[in-house]
Amino acid sequence: MKYYLEKLVEGKSLQEIEMEEAVEEIFTQDTTDAEIASFLTGLKSKGETAEEVSGW
């Protein structure tokens, strides 16, 4: 999750495959509530792209 959070903090968009991996990690790993909140906040702050949303 750290990789995806760092990209979002830098204002970079996630590629569709990265978004798929991030969401899969949220549901299959021991991702904390704080990490999930940071991920969603990072997407909101940066502004979601169509590619990111289609990766869900």
From TrEMBL:
InterPro entries for this protein: Glycosyl_Trfase_fam3_N_dom, Glycosyl_Trfase_fam3_N_dom_sf
GO MF annotations, alphabetized: glycosyltransferase activity
Keyword field contains 4Fe-4S: no
Domain called Glycosyl transferase family 3 N-terminal: residue spans: 3-56
Keyword Glycosyltransferase attached: yes
Name of protein: Glycosyl transferase family 3 N-terminal domain-containing protein
Alphabetically ordered keywords of this record: Glycosyltransferase, Transferase
